[in-house]
Amino acid sequence: MIDAHLHVVDPATSGPDRSGHPDGAWWEAVDASPAAVAGRLADSGVDGGVLVQAVGAHGVDNTHVLESALALGDRWRSVAAVGELDPSPITTVEHAAAGGAAGIRLFSIPRPRESWLDRDRGHDVVEVCRAHRLTPVICCLAEELDAAARLVEAFPDIEFALDHAGFVPIGGDEAGLAGLAAHDNVVVKLSTGVFDDSTLDPASTVGRLVDLVGGDRLAWGSDHPQVRDRSYSELADLARRAVEGLPDATRAAVLEGTAARLWFSDLEQPDLG
Predict the structure, then answer these.
(1) 16-28, pLDDT tens digit by residue?
(2) 272 in any annotated domain
(3) Domain count along the chain
(4) How far is CA 258 from CA 194, 231, 238, 272, in A?
(5) Does the pTM exceed 0.85?
(6) Which pLDDT value is given to residue 188?
């Protein structure tokens, strides 16, 4: 089992919240150190994870997330971030690649007045991702998914990931997600917030996403420790219960195989039957 969406924060180098998240500086209320996060995964039977840049805490200074993944070992990867206001996004991506990143988060929250994802900046970032074999990860609100779809369409040979299912309420207005999911080079992250915001129960939420996206294009990620109202073991158990009714191969893909394909290509891939 691989957790495709985790965060780590260094309190000594973090600043005021930069993301506009309603929780504000959430990392002040929880131990978000690499050792603490890794320990919670190990205690819960999760083999490793993807550390995603905590933009609220560290902006696009990706030093801590890169160093943390390297220090934790082979079962850990990092996804660095760039954003609309990054003064030198290409340099940021190059630095992340040199630091061992497995992906680049195109962070577009709060929503800009005009999306940059499908403009030159977004295209240039993806081109550099291609050169370094980094997975581009789109993080935007539902209102920007049309622009995300145009970006994905422009690079049909590159596999993208989408954070938090684009903040679309499953069982509600899914039009933006459906439009993006029509492109078969997009993987949707099934994070805890997707379960929480859905109008359906967890198993039905997964079933709906399998129908919408495909079982081999979903990857579970807890969003821990930003999600901290439950223990980590409860988040992992929620995912296990939600997928238990799926065929074995689909269940394995959601919980491990798809994340392994996107971010752990150098390791032996799990047998998905």
Answers:
(1) 766 666 667 899 9
(2) no
(3) 1
(4) 18, 24, 18, 10
(5) yes
(6) 98
